[in-house]
Amino acid sequence: MANSIEITMLLDLYGEALTVKQRDYLNHYYNDDLSLSEIAENEGITRQGVRDAIKRAEALLFDMESKLKFSQKLEKLQSGLDDIVKCADEINEYNLSHGLSREINDKTVKIKSIALSLVE
Predict the structure, then answer these.
(1) Which domain range does residue 83 map to?
(2) What is the pLDDT of residue 24?
(3) Which residue, 1, 30, 36, 95, is the most exposed by fewest CB within 10 angstroms?
(4) Domain check: are 15 and 42 in the same one?
(5) Both 61 and 105 in a single domain?
(6) Which residue in 59, 62, 63 sits closest to 9, CA to CA?
(7) 4-27 pLDDT, tens digit each
């Protein structure tokens, strides 16, 4: 079974490229924590039909990620923004402990604010 957190993240990124049924099945399975049997009963198809649709949808998500790499890019962006926030905090802390510039303090607060807004 694929990592459910990874599938959920890929579903958020690429879910609109799937059929409505594939997206629904993945959402029920990974986000709503329904079993294959429960999904099959709710949808009026066989358990095997649900399993096959989920496997095809997972394969499509992984294929899209291997080609587009949005998930990898987002992780890299998040890491960079975390580093920016950390550096801004360190600069601000140094500035405050040495009683230097109010302008530096204001700019580091602004840098941190911008970086944090990009994460949301």
Answers:
(1) 73-119
(2) 97
(3) 1
(4) yes
(5) no
(6) 62
(7) 889 999 999 999 999 999 999 999
